[in-house]
Amino acid sequence: MSTPFYVSPQQAMADRAEYARKGIARGRSLVVMQYADGIVFVGENPSRALHKFSEIYDRIGFAAAGKYNEYENLRIGGVRYADLRGYTYDRDDVTARGLANVYAQTLGTIFSSAAEKPYEVELVVAEVGETPEGDQIYRLPHDGSIVDEHGSVAVGGNAEQISGFLDQRHRDGMSLAEALKLAVQALSRDTNGSEREIPAERLEVAVLDRTRPQKRKFKRIVGRQLARLLEAQGEGSASAGSEESDEAE
Amino acid sequence: MDFLAGHQPDMLPGNRQLPPTQGVIEAPHGTTIVAVTFPGGVVLAGDRRATMGNVIAQRDIEKVFPADEYSAVGIAGTAGLAVEMVKLFQLELEHFEKVEGAQLSLEGKANRLSTMIRSNLGMAMQGLAVVPLFAGYDVDRDKGRIFSYDVTGGRSEEHNFAATGSGSIFARGAMKKLFRDDLTEEQAVTLVVQALYDAADDDSATGGPDVARRIYPIITVITEDGFRRLTAEEAAEISRSVLQRRLEEPDGPKAALL
After folding, report:
1. Which residues contact A28 (CB under 8 A, 6 or more apart)?
2. How many inter-chain contacts (A to B, CB under 8 Å) are there?
3. ipTM of the assembly?
4. DSSP 8-state assignment for residue A191
5. How many CA atoms lie within 13 A of B8 on its CB side?
6. Angle subtended at Cα A207 by Cα A203 and Cα A211, rounded to the nearest 5 degrees
7. Mind telling me the catalytic residues of B?
């Protein structure tokens, strides 16, 4: 019988973290940021059916980078958690903080359990408030920690570089068109600093729009509306914001 | 719902143990719901009264709820159970939509509601029945559709118009005489108010428009643009104009004899 090699806990954790990080880095990055009327999610996604962003509850959205089957699993878990909470108590009792905690617990348990491989995912849970001050954005790395973010956040392969780029340029009270433009700019920068074009068809965009009259604030921005917003860069960004709210669904 | 059944079965309406009872349990009952289709959509409306035996339990109860963006449920029967059923139904449609990324078909929604009513059969046998009317806009067929149910969950699609609840016989009679194929949205709304007025006229458990307390029927319209509930002012205006005409002709508009 062979004796297993001794691996120090530090080394084991470092290896697992390395494994998860590499997995996440293979995927494309995505950006979540605040704008005047809410929170916008922007990412590059060649598929139109397999979403990176989705609705969890009235005011809560979900974004994920990494392995599809793993974050889809977490997403459905989140929807279940939120719906069950809302049904048992009240719709107002479902919060991003609560959801982020559940995700952190799940990811943390999986990460440190020796029997399972760590999830190769990085999540963002965002909740839009009545005012920009009430907005909450939480980033959840693969190891189950929670980072409370403000303004903008990027996850995925090139996240560090994109975050740096966004931190310098993001400001409060941007219009949707401005925020979208900045996000696309950030995403189109490659690791080596060169820029490439991301066509509108390859963009996945969604917003949590606090001005929406419905209870459910999550909305995908697709097709004509997206094209118009991308064109609206620079000129008359305020009008683009108001136009956008008329054209629901 | 399947998840709930596995996870927390006590939260589902049908899974509760019923205490043995004698006779009928006294609980508030909702009364009349009416629906009518028009080219481009469907109108669903309900009166505001809840009764408990011969007592008016509540004057301003709301019995018509949006189920999701393109459908609504109106409920007649035991108010408490019905509201819970609607809540669960709403939850289920929303949950499906979020998990699957697509809406259920209108047929699918109607079938789901049917199962939920059936699970309430035990309660219904004790006099706590819930009998909803389900109306929605079928985005695949581009038209408004109405589904009615019986206590056992039997589902049937109604064409043109339908009513449920204690005042339904009178409301149906009124709608039969007033319905036409080419109603506009506004006409359809007026039609349901007329029907509810007639139901309230002849059925003691149905409430008519209450001018003194400003309580008017709840009227909802579902079209291609989704669900819309008429504001209190809009409902008041239509109810008042119907009432005004009734002051001259108490029995309402007269249909041609031949």
Report:
1. A43, A44, A45, A65, A156, A157, A187
2. 29
3. 0.82
4. T
5. 9
6. 150
7. 31
Question: DSSP class of residue A180?
Answer: H
Q: What local confidence, expressed as pLDDT, does residue B2 receive?
A: 65
- Residue B13 predicted with pLDDT over 70: no
pLDDT at B228: 94
Mean pLDDT of B191-209: 94
Of B197, B199, B204, B206, whose CA–CA distance to B245 is shortest? Answer: B197
Q: What is the pLDDT of residues A162-214, one digit of tens each?
A: 999 999 999 999 999 999 999 999 998 877 767 788 888 889 999 999 999 88
Asked whether B163 and B175 are in contact (CB, 8 A), the reply is yes
Nearest CB to B91: which of A51, A87, A216? A87
- Pairing of the two strands B41-46 and B50-52: unpaired
CA distances to A242, B88, B162 from B193, in Å: 36, 29, 14
Residue type, A46: P
Considering CB atoms only, which of A49, A83, A216 is closest to B95? A83
A87 interaction partners in chain B (CB closer than 8 Å)? 4, 11, 87-88, 91
Q: Are B84 and B13 in contact (CB under 8 A)?
A: yes
Residue A236 has pLDDT above 50, yes or no: no
The minimum CA-CA distance between B228 and chain A, rounded to whole Å, is 11
Cβ contacts of B88 on chain A, cutoff 8 Å: 87
For the beta sheet containing A218-221, the strands, ordered from the edge strand earlier in sequence to the opposite edge, are: A152-155, A30-35, A38-44, A203-209, A218-221
CA angle A56, A58, A60 (to 5 degrees): 50
State phi, psi for B64 to the nearest 5 degrees: -120, 125
Nearest by CB to residue B91, choosing from A54, A56, A83, is A83
Interhelix angle for A223-231 vs A176-187, to 10°?
90
Q: What count of other Cβ atoms lies within 10 Å of the Cβ of residue A172?
A: 11
Cβ–Cβ under 8 Å, residues B130 and B117: yes
pTM reported for the whole predicted model = 0.86
| C-beta of residue B63 within 8 angstroms of C-beta of residue B218 | yes
Residue A35's H or E segment, with its range, is strand A30-35
Task: Answer whether B99 sits within 8 Å of A51, measured CB to CB.
Answer: no
Q: How many helices (H) and strands (E) does chain B have?
A: 7, 13
Say how far apart CA B255 and CA B258 lie, in whole Å. Answer: 9
Question: Residues of chain A with pLDDT > 90: what percent?
Answer: 63
Q: Return the residue matching tokens 């403000």.
A: A150
